[in-house]
């Protein structure tokens, strides 16, 4: 039994930034599954590879099944990820005008295998000689490219989820675990909670404006059963926006004009509008740090009655990533499908 004043250091709350998980003794886990699925899709979808015989492209990512997490135990980082990825490809021989299609499966992306050992199983939908030639191109050239992209995923996972999980202790550098963009450049070496406090603090304090916070990037791909022009109108025509956002919005889709939705809970400014193709906005939620804006880019691609929407949103406060993703999905995409009958698939 410890003497008075000599408690087990695992349980002593030291003079440290967060006063939790002292000495990094306890198991801490960060769920990286949703981020991983979005990242893998971003890295693989649209990937092209070719040789002197022909060219192939990954056209669809049909499913990504599995999970990923980052863990800290006794100041040691442990990453777990295990996924099965299924998709579709299309290709064409250089002396041919007909394209051929097929499927691919990555059965085991996990920490048990090095990226160079990842298997890619490829099949062709047709049984003709041309289709098999293109399948061979995919197998020979595509496997290497896919392995390289998934190696990048593994690196990004460790960078994105490795920061701030091992927390600084009393005698350590309080900037430990922060990404370069999050480091504190002052003589006082302010604690980590000072850096992040504005996520939950009173947003009326003007003195808080301009403080650096950890941010993340969100990517989403949605499919709608409509023309690109219809989807663009649903995103920019005020009466249609009011149909799923509610009345009383401030909304004039002109470059430089500001907008306000949900009673001022979402505000921003239009940066660029290309009819039926692209919308760029400065975008924020009321609860975010004062004057902190993310950048939202929405790109539309229409083919044969179906439109694919690709969203990229950078500068989201780190703790708000999952909430922001769910907000787009529930308050925008699902409501638009229901109200306007756009239907479509969610990737």
From TrEMBL:
Any single Gene Ontology cellular-component annotation: cytosol
SUPFAM superfamilies given in the database record: Activator of Hsp90 ATPase, Aha1, Bet v1-like
Transmembrane portions of the chain: none
Any one GO molecular-function label of the UniProt entry: protein-folding chaperone binding
Region of interest (Disordered), residue spans: 168-192
Regions of compositional bias (Polar residues) in chain numbering: 169-186
GO terms for biological process, alphabetical: protein folding
InterPro entries (UniProt xref): Aha1, AHSA1-like_N, ASHA1/2-like_C, START-like_dom_sf
Sequence ranges assigned to domain Activator of Hsp90 ATPase AHSA1-like N-terminal in this UniProt record: 29-163
SMART domains per the UniProt record, alphabetical: Aha1_N
Family named by the database record: Belongs to the AHA1 family.
Protein name: Activator of Hsp90 ATPase AHSA1-like N-terminal domain-containing protein
Protein source organism: Lymnaea stagnalis
